[in-house]
Amino acid sequence: MTQTTTAGIDDLLAGRLPDSHGRFGAYGGRFVPETLMPSILRLETEARRALADSRFQQQLSDELEDWVGRPTPLTRARRLGESWGAEVWLKREDLTHTGAHKINNALGQALLARHLGMRRVVAETGAGQHGVAAAAACARVGLPCEVYMGAVDVRRQAPNVLRMRRLGARVIEVESGDRTLRAAIDEALRDWVSDPLGTYYLLGSAVGPHPYPWLVRELQAVIGREARAQLQERSGSLPDLVVACVGGGSNAIGLFHAFLGDPSVTLLGVEAGGLGSEIGHNAATIVHGRPGVLHGSRSLLLQDEHGQIRETHSVSAGLDYPGVGPEHAFLRDIGRVRYTSIGDEEALEALDECSRLEGILPALETAHALAGARREAASSTGRTILIGLSGRGDKDLGILAETESRDGDPA
Ligand SMILES: *Cc1c(COP(=O)(O)O)cnc(C)c1O
Question: Are 372 and 390 in contact (CB under 8 A)?
Fold first, then answer.
């Protein structure tokens, strides 16, 4: 495909993107089996209708308040700010029900599944965080939920498997492919193809075929809308810099969207640099990836010179994915968002700093955003920085204990 894109930020702000094919410039689209096309087109039509329907929106916002715990606070991080020489604000998605932003999307899609009269929901999960959010949301709306999870992850993430089961979901262990998230998504898509009229596929990030990247962004945009209004009320101004971590890209796109039309606001997405820049040692898709098609959409991908998708590495399971949402690839191309990567060690240091200075133990994914913000603050002081605190770190205590015993440093 040699087509060049002329689409720009104005098209995005005016709602002309994604276009009718689900494309953000050169990225996105819907690369799915023919048998899935009718359901995916129906999902798009119905999702647009539901999100424009004031009764559906009311139902969603009532549940976000009553069950999820929104609006989440915007916390002034004074001690971090003093240490960095910046004014630092944290948008506290860690305080939502189930402990991360993922619930915003899971709840919205579960309500949509019920609204569409679906009989059952399937979802994929890697580390289990989206699986838990999907299981909880399905229980809340009264729909049976089956979660595909790679066999390797089932073993690595036993507590989340138990959580999903306690919440009434069935966890289906995937033995095919790489037996991790990638294979789990393949199986969930296959399940959906086999029953497109009765099954709803609840996808966990701003990836996959259109309409998911758009739908997930719309459901996560509440993060940025709240944060922008809260910051303006508290400090009377906009931030100079907004920072979020990027796995598939849902919390980042949700936080960034409210600021895309503010030219004075710099936006920074932080990917997982893992152990280093060599292929296979990181999950920094935007920084190191090239265009290709995976899981129904065209975006940047970590692949070798033969187009084979490569394994990824990150200390944080939630960032460990070889693709990224197409809207991020587009925002990179047009230069509206800057992307960088942070390695395992630096992320762990930032996690410690936030825990000890602010009394907030962030998720390992989130620690990448904190480290990215810290680096930026070091390059120019006195700025107002808003950071997406995407989730809490309780789930990561096992990994933290391992690094502690390795380094012999329980401080
Ligand atoms: C899953 C997860 C992420 C990464 O997912 P995105 O779709 O990129 O937001 C980031 N932070 C936390 C806490 C997560 O659980």
Answer: no
246 CB less than 6 Å from ligand 1? yes
Backbone φ and ψ of 7, nearest 5°: -65, 145
Asked whether 365 lines ligand 1 (CB < 6 A), one says yes
Give the per-residue pLDDT at 410.
Answer: 52
Distances (CA, A) of 284 to 192, 247, 287, 292: 29, 8, 5, 15
Tell me which architecture the domain covering 25-64+102-216 has in CATH. Answer: 3-Layer(aba) Sandwich (3.40)
pTM of this structure? 0.97
Choice among 124, 271, 353, 365 that is catalytic: 124
330-353 average pLDDT score: 98
Yes or no: say if 390 and 93 are a contact pair by the CB < 8 Å rule: yes
Fold of 71-99+221-406: Rossmann fold (3.40.50)
All structural domains of the chain with their residue ranges:
25-64+102-216, 71-99+221-406
Per-residue CA distances from 160 to 98, 136, 395 (Å): 11, 12, 9
